[in-house]
Amino acid sequence: QALFLPSVQQSPLFSGKGRGRQVIAVARTADVVIMMLDATKGEVQRALLEKELESVGIRLNKSKPNIYFKPKKGGGISFNSTVTLTQCSEKLVQLILHEYKIFNAEVLFREDCSPDEFIDVIVGNRVYMPCLYVYNKIDQISMEEVDRLARRPHSVVISCGMKLNLDYLLEKLWEYLALTCIYTKKRGQRPDFTDAIILRKGASVEHVCHRIHRSLASQFKYALVWGTSTKYSPQRVGLTHVMEHEDVIQIVKK
Asked: Which positions fall inside the OBG-type G domain (predicted)?
């Protein structure tokens, strides 16, 4: 399912007035954010969109800080770190906790994080998700500018008007969604490559069974799998076997 939010020019969404903030907060439930940008307008749009998403607790292309934080009923603040900290100190951590009226807690830094990242851990309602920056209208800018934009992290350059690079955009979107395509096969027949089962990366044979029919897992005996997830093809596997992209599966019932 794709959710389209209004463009930057429609200011009520991005001005904080009315219910604009609530509308953009819907993006918190998404699996990936596609930020459509006009390649002819520089970085103004990107900076504005990133700022608005940050304001509703969405962190783009970032992983959750590896910080252990647990409030306690007493005992003061216990601070430790397993790495050398260059951005935070014990005194700064205590000041931040006091600002949030927290005077008893256990804090353990497992990586060198910034004060803002530590605040995100305290607040606890941040969402970390991948974002793909898509620059459109590349047919209206120079080749040097296209090359510069294409080399930026998490960026794809396209032209909808001239249908340039759209196939690569679909490939990157599939990669960012972390989806896996599984094909099924009936006994004595060729695999059905026209109707695939789409699952999350890391899905097991049990997930495939549930997707086909909710009662199939209870009737499962074994499965034959062809593809990169097996040591040889076909390989007889159980429910816990992890499937990989474009594997073929044949399920045998009891």
From this structure: 1-178
